[in-house]
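Q: Got a minute? One more chain.
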Amino acid sequence: MAGTLSFLRRIFKAFRYRDFRLMWFGACASTIGTFVQQFAQSWLVYDLTKDPFYLGLDLFLGQLPIILFSLVGGVFADRMDRRKMLLVSQYIQMACAFLLAFLFFTHTVKVWHILSLSFIVGLGQSFGGPAYSALLPTLVNSEDLANAIAMNSIQFNLARIIGPTIGGLAYTVFGATWCFTLNGVSYLAVIVSLFMIQVKFVPLRSREPILKSMRAGLGFIRQREGLAPLVVLAFSTTLFGFSLNGFLPVIVRTIFHKGPETYELLLVSSGAGSICGALIVAAMEKLKGQGRAALLALFILGTATVAFALSRWLPLSCILIFIGGAAIMASASLMLSLVQLIVPDQMRGRVMSVYNLAFRAGMPLGSLALGKLIPLLGVSVALAGNGLLLVAVTIFFLLMQRNVIFRAQAEDRGSAAI
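A: Always. Here it is, folded:
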C-alpha cells in the first residue's frame, strides 16, 4: 500500500501546486468541449462534401494562422501579461463556437462558414498558444516541470476520450447544434481558472521592434546546442505522424463501412493510448535517456501507423491506434520537456512559439497532402506511406543526429536554473 501511494504521489506531484491544479481542470473542461465540437465538425464536413480533401482543408485552415502569426504571438508573450493574452484567445474561440451553433440552429450553415471559423479559431490560438506554453512552467518548480508537462498531456488526452463520447451522444440524440453550444460553454471553465491563478512572472514591457525580438529568439535557438534538431524533429513528427485521426471518417466509411459509433470507438481508443503514454512519462523519476526514449516512441508510432493502415479487422485497428496514441504522447511530452528545461523565462515565449510553430505546422501540411493523396492512392497506401516516412526520419536521427540530441539532454540539466 505504501509503495502504491508513493507511486501515485510521484505521478501526480504537479498537483501539489494550486495554480497548476486550477489551470489543469479549466483547460481539461475546455478541451473536452473542443473535442465535442471536433467530432461533429469532422463528420459534418465529410457528410456535406463527400470529399476527404475538405477534411484536410479544414484542418489546414485551422492551423494556418498558427503558421503565419505564432512567431509574433511569441514576441508578445515575452512582453505582455500572458494571462491577459490567454483570456483574449478564449473569448475569440468561444464566440466562434456560439456562432457556429447559431448557424446550425438556423439551418444556414455552409462549408465555407465552417472553414472560415476554423481559420478565426486558429488566429486566436496563434496568440494563446505561446502564452500558455510560456505560462505553464511558471506554475511549478523546475524539478516538477516534466511531470507538469506530462500531466498537461493527460488532461488533453482525457478530453480526447470524454469529448468524442459526449460528442457522439450529443450528435446522435440532440444534433450538431448542441455539440457547438457545449464547446462554447466549456470555455467559461478556463476563463474562470485564469482569473483565479496568481501569475508569478510577468514579462517586462519592451519597445524593441517585433522583428528584432523575433531574430533574438531565432538566434537563441541556433546558438543553444540541440534546440534546432529538436525543432526539426517536432515538425517531422507532426508532418508524418499526427494526420491519422483527421482522416478516420474516411477509414470508417471506406474500410469498415460503419458510421459515427465506430468513428467514436477509434477516437476513444487513440485517446486512451495517449493517456497511458503520458502516464508513463509522468511516472519517470528522472529523465535519463529521454532523447533515446523519444526516438523509440516515434519508431513505434510509425510502425503502428503502417500496421493500422493495412488492418482490416476492427479489434486489431483499435489496439494499433491505442499503441499509436501512447507513442504520440510519450514522444511529444519527452521532446517538449527537453525544450522547456533549456529555455529561460525571458526567452520562453519566443522559443516556444518557434517550437510550437514547427510542431503545429506539420499537422496541416500533412493533412493537406494526405487529402490530395488519398483519392489518388487510396487511404491505406497513403497512411502506410506516412508511417514509413516517420520510421525513416526516426532512423536518421538515431544514426546521424543522436549525439546532438543527447548533448541537448545533458545540457538541460545545467540550464534549468537559468
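A: The CA atoms of residues 126 and 305 lie 29 Å apart.
Q: Perfect, thanks.
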